[in-house]
Specification:
The chain is α/β, with parallel strands linked by helices. The protein folds into 3 domains: about 5-205, no CATH class; about 225-380 and about 565-575, 3-Layer(aba) Sandwich (Rossmann fold), CATH 3.40.50.2000; about 380-560, Glycogen Phosphorylase B (Rossmann fold). It has helices spanning about 10-25, 35-50, 50-65, 75-90, 95-110, 115-130, 135-155, 155-170, 175, 185, 190-195, 200-205, 240-245, 270-280, 290-300, 310-315, 355-365, 410-420, 440-455, 470-475, 490-500, 530-540, 545-560, 565-575; strands spanning about 225-230, 250-255, 300-305, 325-330, 350, 370-375, 395-400, 425-430, 460-465, 480, 500-505, 525. Strands 2-1-3-4-5-6 form a 6-stranded parallel beta sheet, with helices on both faces. It has a 6-stranded parallel beta sheet with strand order 9-8-7-10-11-12, sandwiched between helices. Strand 7, helix 18 (about 410-420) and strand 8 form a beta-alpha-beta unit. Helix 3 packs parallel to helix 5 and helix 21 (about 490-500) packs across helix 23. The longest helix is centred in the first third of the chain and has 20 residues, at about 75-90. It is globular. The protein starts with 11 loop residues before the first helix and ends with a helix. The mean pLDDT is about 90.
Length: about 575
Amino acid sequence: MGLSRYVPASLRPRAHQASRTLRRAAGAVPRSPAQGRASAERVLDRRIVPDEQRRALLLRAFEARARLATGSARDQASITRQALGLGRRLTRLGHPAAAVRVYTAGEAALREPSQRLLLTVQRTALELRRGEVPADLWERLADLLALADRHLDAGDTDTAGTRLQEAYNLAFHRTLHFEDRMSPLAADPDAFLAPLRASAAHRAVETLTPRERPTATSGAGRPHRLLVTTFMNWNFLGGILDDYRATPGVEVRTLDLQQIPDGPWRAQPVDLVKDRLRQTRSGPPLEPPAEVREAFDWADTVFVEWGHRALSWVSMLPEVSARVVVRVHSYEAFTPMPLHTDWAGVDDVVFVSPHIRALVEAAVPGIHAVRRHTIVNRNLLDTFARPKLPGAEHVLGLIGWNNVTKDPAWALDVLEALHRHDDRYRLRLLGNEFDRTNVTGASAAYRATLMRRIEAFGPAVERPGFTDDVPEALRGIGVILSTSRREGTHEGLAQGAASGALPVVRNWPYVARWGGPASLYPQSWVVETPDAAAARILDLAGSGRLGSASSDAAEWVRTQYDWSVVRPRLDEVLLGPR
């Protein structure tokens, strides 16, 4: 491995033993350098890294190598390569703590700030993924932003964009905003965004780009042309597309930006930031393939679903005469995409809830240049009005529970509070099991604790799994819970209320400051604690008012949020002139 001459004398016997193990495991003498490297890598993956003692020796050898590093450019570059390679290998093989040690040792050895930051980005991202907030996170974020500013000042928008995106990756990491802690953006946008706003590169991408948009062509005598575009996620669009395709006088096309040919127009996050910086420096415009350009030229209205990649991408397109309407749900508000969108290229933005709108308005300066609307998602709520099954009044329901944001542990707290008074109550968790893949350390720890609690409740907690027939499943549920830490609208809550289940809604803590569920639903539905949730249920059941309260909630939600009520408002935005 080229490290033996850097190993301290006290460790050399063990290092030689490890070297012999490598040679024995490698077998035949390699016939080429490439074959030799491949053989050594197999031994590392199969014999060295999985073994605790050998892995510890490997780490100590690298740390010794890093401590004895010289300041020569060649030696510094070697340290960087070795740290990146070894750190990624350890991460891939399931040893993130060891990878953090490697990156930390490499950072201490490197003299050149930009080279050291290559390891810093890997180390801090890995710590965040493990569910830990690095003690030096904000200092390193400032380093990345300062480097982005220097490259931008030198006219290197590509490198500036790379460094700026790395800063966004850290500042908006899911551990900070979507896992087991309050999002610092939602808690205090000004304080959270202050380091970004101090950066010239970030201020550049937030600045609206002056432009003259061409006059829209007349649609007289032909159908209104609606182009619907997104990046991969069509979850909330299926019914809407069907409805508009069936509407006389409307012609619909769709465009998934993930499916367009690869090229300089890619909608990858780092490319979007680079393109945005080039745009602010009067660089060449973002020009898509001819067939994509034709679709935008064809359209009278472009409906961009999700305020994420597609939003930033479409906002930079030149010469768009169509009306550009974007819809923002909840997730996107906690990403950097709305911040580096060129809002000069957008006409209208639709928010699915007032509290998400309030948060984005506080965080994103450019949004104030755009007409803003609040229109909830499509829901055919009349289909949920079905008779309840016997015993449903003692069944609590939670629709969708397989992530930390839904916080199903809070539902267990409610059940526990109810059982202190009446052990007939059960909790039914509808939907897929708690996710095991692509989770952070915090999410994995949450799941482990949750599953232990569920097992302890025995038959009082039911997990029937995913169902395609939610209206039928709701017949057996008499109380619909919303236990989330953050929501946009919570479709399952609206559907449950429409079915005649009593709605009991936690005051979603991550967005409570911005209005929370009370910005969408009656205040009487909202509670602060599990004990208050249990008290609402027991009080209405004990007084004989459970049935009437549930009926009133069903009537209210259907008259407010059924698609028959909501669609005319969306029609006005999508089908009107620019």
